[in-house]
Design brief:
Elements (H helix, E strand, L loop, with lengths): L1 E3 L5 E3 L18 E5 L2 E4 L2 E4 L1 E5 L2 E5 L13 H5 L6 E5 L9 H9 L3 E5 L1 H13 L4 E5 L4
Length: 142
């Protein structure tokens, strides 16, 4: 299926909140744009939230921080040996991860930070350009 991305460019799209076994891309890339309910990266557009890890960018079935569970973070937790930092882009409102979640990442030796999605995208991009071992769960915003 071909639709238009956030800037009117035709690109393939993926279903909202798709649960898939394969990443959209098998590697990390910069997030080119965000907003309008999705993200643009690697020449494609995705509607919904994304999970960005060293081994790929995945659809992430999260609409709000309250949807974040061990299950929805299972890929990130499994990738902990490849991460030093993990950022949660909490959508349009600030959110503090529960202490249990912070402890879980700390025990895996991964620094966890949460911020609204706009700053999270910018921080993720800068850290990725610096070659740092970064992952991010980014909640889509309008």
């Amino acid at each position: 299926m071909v639709e238009h991305d956030l800037f009117g460019k035709p690109v393939p799209t993926f279903p909202d909140h798709a649960l898939v076994d394969e990443p959209h891309l098998p590697r990390q890339v910069l997030i080119d744009a965000h907003g309008a309910g999705g993200f643009r990266f690697g020449g494609m557009s995705h509607r919904g939230s994304v999970l960005c890890l060293p081994h790929g960018i995945w659809a992430w079935p999260i609409i709000s921080p309250g949807d974040i569970t061990d299950e929805t973070l299972s890929r990130a937790l499994a990738a902990a040996t490849d991460l030093d930092f993990f950022i949660i882009g909490s959508g349009g409102m600030p959110w503090r991860p529960p202490e249990e979640l912070r402890t879980r990442f700390r025990e895996l030796h991964v620094s966890l930070d949460a911020m609204t999605t706009g700053p999270a995208v910018r921080t993720y991009n800068v850290m990725l350009m610096e070659g740092r071992r970064i992952g991010a769960g980014l909640i889509a915003i309008e």
